[in-house]
Design brief:
heterodimer; A: about 325 residues; alpha/beta; 7-stranded parallel beta sheet; 7 helices; B: about 250 residues; 9-stranded mixed beta sheet; two-stranded antiparallel sheet; 15 strands; about 25% helix; binds flavin-adenine dinucleotide
Chain lengths: ~325, ~250
């Protein structure tokens, strides 16, 4: 018995979510009293470093996995699990894990829960928690099959170093022919991807127009935050669609969510209510968002945000 | 092109969530149900558009009891040609995927679409399970889907960007924002929907192995602390010293 974690490395680089998944996998292995095995697929620079985050072994399946096809990756993960006697497979609940969890579960006849936010409790079953109803509730799942697939929610288990680097072992797996051709990968350079961001500055219709986003971007840039927006803002094209957070947009759980000129409709809150600290800036003291906030500022964004930027600059200058 | 669109029923986005029977069951009392927005706004509408431009048919499939017929009729009113309801409670994602895969196997669909996730259990598991059960390629979180003959070009959302992929039919795709725009059914659509075929079939036997044992509401937020809008230094200090997030 062991736990296998898939650590993704698009473009050959291990992602932050890979370190989080390994950290979580280590906690799962500890809860079960067993070892953690990490698997990388395709090129993965410096993968031995995953040992530091708790992997007793690091495997690499290289051939045929340089671009992403869920069929090939799921085959590699399932075979690596079989080869290492793993009955729990851990993935990240991101664009990889969401393509893979169901496939791997079917291959291994496993119970499957995605978006997990807790370490399994093993007294009287194998139970994990996840957010349901878009963050409006938490459900505890009982995984009854002997094999289990869990995908862990991003920004939930920060990477923790607990061990030392290990050597990488190459394994061979039988893959089906790839049927997906990746033609292009477009990433926004330099900025933090929203689902992975620890700090997020978000704004809504209260900002009146796209020309007023300069201060949002400036504040975000100062603290290294990603930018986000409410749905109507993305719908009218003031901001790109990938910034839309909420029930029908991206669900995020950053450490800090600053909401500027957003009313706090239930569908908006559904995507952000798991944020650890919420700051709301709104000129209407009755805005529903204040009920979900940790810190509230009643004021005009066009006065408050420039002032916040100045204070943040002073603070940052004092830190250096 | 034969399109199959998987639709599910979810509580309306404004629903207040509560539980009964010692927090082991979702309280369905007074809950308004809707078609899962991703299924309706993006998967179904894009299938309709592709049918309108390239010909073919759009079938919708739902796993659920007779009370789901209302949302199935809505899908027909939006423009699907026919519908299938697999008459069973949707006990877990493997059960649902197995039912849809069993139906799809005998009906040679070219493209199977679903929403990227449901807004109730937020699993994203069903479409990838269907793909695996049918041995088909799968593209998740697609924000655009273009077809040229049997080849599809799909952009999918990845962290901080997009990936553009090509794939041949048959395949499974899950739909995200951007793929299409919501369509409101018109009176004619609603009238026609009443006459369109809705076939009810019985489920295949499947063992489920994932169960929800209990629910809880998220821990209540402590009261909001108001900060003077003139004093943003204080906010910065609170974020640094108290919340410890910067
Ligand atoms: C099915 C469904 C799904 C939905 N999904 C989502 C979703 O995923 N995400 C989402 O965000 N919404 C979603 N919505 C929409 C949601 O209901 C709200 O309409 C939306 O969130 C409102 O956006 P907003 O707060 O930016 O705008 P508004 O509601 O217009 O609020 C603007 C706020 O700005 C404040 N303001 C105005 N001027 C200033 C100023 N100068 N300084 C400071 N504050 C100011 C106002 O007091 C107000 O509170 C959904 C709706 C439906 C029906």
């Amino acid at each position: 018995m062991s736990v296998l974690v898939f650590a993704e490395s698009p473009g050959g680089k291990l992602k932050k979510s890979a370190f989080e998944a390994v950290t979580y996998g280590k906690k799962v292995a500890d809860a079960l009293g067993t070892d953690l095995v990490a698997l990388t697929c395709g090129p993965a620079e410096n993968a031995g470093v995953l040992g530091k985050y708790g992997a007793a072994k690091v495997l690499n399946a290289a051939d045929g996995l340089s671009s992403f096809d869920s069929q090939c990756f799921a085959a590699a993960i399932a075979q690596a699990a079989e080869q290492s006697g793993a009955n729990v497979v851990v993935l990240s609940h991101n664009s990889y894990g969401k393509s893979l969890a169901g496939r791997v579960a079917v291959k291994l006849s496993a119970s499957c829960v995605s978006g997990v936010t807790s370490v399994p409790s093993t007294d009287g079953g194998f139970m994990v928690k996840k957010n349901v109803f878009s963050g409006k509730a938490v459900a505890e799942y009982d995984l009854q099959a002997s094999n289990k697939v869990l995908s862990v929610m991003p920004n939930t288990f920060p990477p923790e170093e607990t061990g030392a680097e290990v050597a990488v072992e190459t394994i061979s797996v039988n893959l089906p022919a790839a049927r997906i051709t990746v033609k292009e990968v477009k990433t926004v350079e330099g900025s933090v991807p929203l689902p992975e961001a620890e700090l997020v500055v978000s704004a809504g219709r209260g900002l009146k127009g796209p020309e007023n986003w300069g201060m949002v971007e400036e504040l975000a840039g100062l603290i290294g935050a990603a930018t986000a927006c409410s749905r109507p803002v993305a719908d009218v094209g003031w901001r790109p669609h990938h910034e839309h957070v909420g029930q029908t947009g991206v669900a995020i759980r950053p450490n800090l969510y600053i909401a500027i000129g957003i009313s706090g409709a239930i569908q908006h809150l559904a995507g952000v209510n798991s944020s650890k600290t919420i700051v709301v800036i709104n000129k209407d003291p009755e805005a529903p968002f204040f009920k979900a906030a940790d810190y509230g500022i009643v004021g005009d964004a066009f006065d408050v945000v420039p002032r916040l930027i100045e204070s943040m600059k002073t603070f940052k200058a004092g830190q250096n | 092109m034969k399109f199959l669109v998987c639709i599910s029923k979810t509580p309306d986005t404004t629903t207040k969530i509560g539980f009964v029977e010692g927090n082991t069951r979702f309280d369905t009392d007074k809950v308004q149900y809707i078609m899962n927005p991703y299924d309706e706004w993006y998967a179904l509408v894009r299938a309709m558009e592709l049918k309108e431009s390239g010909g073919g048919s759009v079938t919708v499939v739902n796993v659920g009891p007779a009370s789901n017929d209302a949302i199935i009729r809505k899908a027909l009113a939006i423009g699907a040609d026919d519908a299938v309801r697999i008459n069973a409670d949707d006990s877990d994602s493997f059960f649902v995927a197995s039912q849809i895969a069993a139906y799809a196997k005998d009906n040679a669909f070219d493209v199977i679409l679903a929403g990227k996730e449901t807004i109730d259990y937020n699993g994203s598991e069903v479409p990838s399970m269907i793909a695996e059960l049918l041995d088909m390629p799968f593209v998740s979180y697609a924000s655009s889907l273009e077809m040229a003959g049997n080849e599809a070009t799909i952009a999918r959302d990845i962290e901080g960007g997009k990936e553009v992929v090509a794939v041949q039919t048959p395949f499974v795709v899950s739909a995200a924002k951007g793929m299409a725009e919501q369509r409101i059914p018109n009176m004619r659509g609603i009238m026609m929907a009443k006459k369109k075929p809705l076939q009810v079939i019985e489920p295949v036997g499947v063992t489920t192995s994932t169960k929800i044992s209990s629910y809880a509401l998220p821990p209540a937020k402590s009261d909001v602390r108001m900060v003077d809008p003139e004093n943003m230094d204080e906010l910065v200090q609170l974020l640094h010293n108290e919340a410890k997030v910067i």
